[in-house]
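Hi support team,

I've been running sequence recovery on a batch of backbones for a student project. Most finish fine, but this one hangs at about 90% for roughly twenty minutes before it completes. I'm not sure whether the input is malformed or the queue is just slow. I've pasted the structure tokens below so you can try to reproduce it. Let me know if you need the job ID as well.

Thanks,
M.K.
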């Protein structure tokens, strides 16, 4: 500690975070080496003009792209992780809620994936958040692995087993023979553990509290194609292409019942949403950078129909207003769109 103080005193440096560069002097190397890792993490040698340029580039991002969601986090948690990485790269502080302050940066996702699921998650930034609604009505494709013989309260492997039935007599031909019943325009009862709401609260939240929840009535959904990819009892793998509002967990559960048994989802991967595919368009976390997202937005803009194109940006604000805005904390709006009643499920947070 004494060595640290001596080194810093001899160099006459004032180490600051985020916006101020470390001045070059004969004692700089000694001072940098002597300070604690925590202090070093807060210091930066980056030119403030570079930080300003990155911040401006972040705020100029507009459009829709896709990220690769892993198993574990919820879609909202993943969006927050993405937001924090971008703000950190731009050298901008995390926003604080202030409804009076003009929103300057918007980010949102369209089409929630369960925490146990992985795959394509569509994200909108800037004016692109207004395009997320169209993503919900587009087609989606999933690879789902079901487990015969067990039913759970969540309809997937994360829930409590509520029923067990034999499955040893079920054959591959049996499964293939009933898939036609789940193709086309069909009626489907949504899971109790879902983002659907009752009295303004999600059914999944009410269920976790132990409150009694009635199942929502069956509603029309569309399955464009469904095929059996693999059958190794008790597991079976499906390739499903469907429209908005469709629940794979309900499908797998219904298939189990149709086979005089029961079933739950063991693994679920969304491989496609709208024009975005997991293989070609979904950015892994190591590419969640401002430059990589800018490139992805440029690529993805060619995938979207012309009628969903972004409007021209408003005229630039005067230079003096720009300079003033650099000194202000960034305001941020996060938008989350669920599969139903989109207009009622816009969530604004900071």
């Amino acid at each position: 500690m004494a060595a640290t103080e001596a080194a810093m005193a001899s160099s006459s440096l004032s180490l600051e975070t985020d916006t101020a560069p470390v001045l070059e002097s004969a004692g700089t190397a000694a001072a940098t080496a002597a300070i604690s890792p925590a202090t070093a993490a807060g210091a930066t040698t980056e030119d403030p003009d570079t930080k300003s340029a990155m911040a401006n580039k972040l705020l100029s991002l507009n459009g829709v792209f896709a990220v690769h969601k892993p198993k574990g986090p919820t879609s909202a948690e993943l969006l927050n992780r993405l937001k924090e990485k971008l703000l950190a790269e731009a050298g901008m502080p995390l926003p604080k809620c202030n409804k009076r302050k003009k929103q300057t940066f918007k980010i949102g996702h369209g089409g929630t994936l369960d925490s146990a699921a992985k795959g394509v998650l569509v994200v909108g930034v800037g004016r692109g958040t207004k395009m997320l609604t169209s993503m919900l009505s587009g087609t989606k494709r999933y690879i789902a692995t079901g487990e015969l013989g067990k039913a759970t309260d969540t309809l997937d492997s994360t829930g409590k087993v509520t029923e067990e039935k034999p499955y040893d007599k079920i054959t591959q031909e049996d499964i293939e023979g009933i898939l036609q019943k789940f193709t086309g325009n069909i009626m489907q009862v949504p899971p109790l553990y879902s983002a659907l709401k009752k009295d303004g609260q999600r059914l999944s939240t009410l269920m976790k509290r132990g409150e009694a929840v009635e199942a929502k009535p069956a509603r029309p959904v569309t399955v464009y194609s469904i095929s059996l990819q693999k059958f190794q009892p008790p597991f079976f793998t499906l390739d499903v292409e469907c429209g908005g509002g469709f629940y794979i967990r309900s499908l797998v559960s219904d298939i189990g019942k149709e086979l005089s048994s029961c079933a739950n989802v063991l693994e679920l991967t969304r491989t496609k949403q709208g024009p975005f595919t997991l293989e070609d368009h979904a950015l892994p976390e190591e590419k969640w950078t401002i430059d990589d997202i800018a490139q992805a937005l440029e690529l993805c803009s060619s995938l979207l129909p012309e009628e969903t194109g972004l409007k021209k940006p408003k005229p630039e604000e005067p230079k003096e207003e720009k300079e003033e805005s650099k000194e202000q904390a960034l305001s941020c709006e996060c938008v989350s769109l669920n599969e139903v009643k989109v207009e009622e499920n816009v969530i604004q947070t900071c």
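--
Follow-up from support: It reproduced on our side and the slowdown came from queue contention, not your input. The longest strand covers residues 219-232. No action needed from you.
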